[in-house]
Specification:
four-stranded antiparallel β-sheet, 1 helix, 139 residues
């Protein structure tokens, strides 16, 4: 194999591996959180106009609230933040629900960030049995 061909093969293989390892921005998904601190970021999803985040089964070693905020993941620029929601129902056996209806048109990548846990930006940790992201306003 010639040297130029070998380099091209290596570079092409590296690009495929990098693309395969890139985070996928799915639309609707469910997961859980274990022992997260304030500033925890969720995985990304693609959406426009509307996103809903639900937490069920929240526990913490502090107060019974957590602040959740949606962010637009913008490459090579600071990310744009949207309304902050305070979740409390998930600590009392219910489901906390945050809806963001003011997102811009056009598909973009979003994530949520835990801004505070029990009113604090450091210290307490949060676990959530079920986290759901829904991008369909129809339900």
């Amino acid at each position: 194999m010639k040297r130029g061909t070998r380099i091209t093969t290596i570079v092409g293989t590296a690009a495929v591996i990098t693309l395969a390892m890139a985070p996928i921005a799915e639309a609707n998904w469910s997961s859980s959180i274990t022992g997260a601190s304030a500033s925890f970021e969720s995985r990304r999803w693609s959406d426009e106009l509307y996103s809903q985040v639900k937490f069920t089964g929240c526990t913490t070693d502090g107060s019974k609230s957590t602040d959740v905020q949606i962010w637009n993941d913008i490459s090579f620029q600071p990310d744009a933040a949207y309304d902050n929601k305070t979740f409390t129902a998930c600590f009392n056996g219910g489901t906390s629900n945050g809806e963001w209806t003011d997102l811009p048109s056009g598909m973009r990548d979003y994530y949520f960030k835990i801004m505070k846990i029990g009113g604090s930006t450091f210290g307490p940790q949060l676990s959530v049995r079920t986290v759901s992201v829904d991008t369909t306003k129809a339900d």
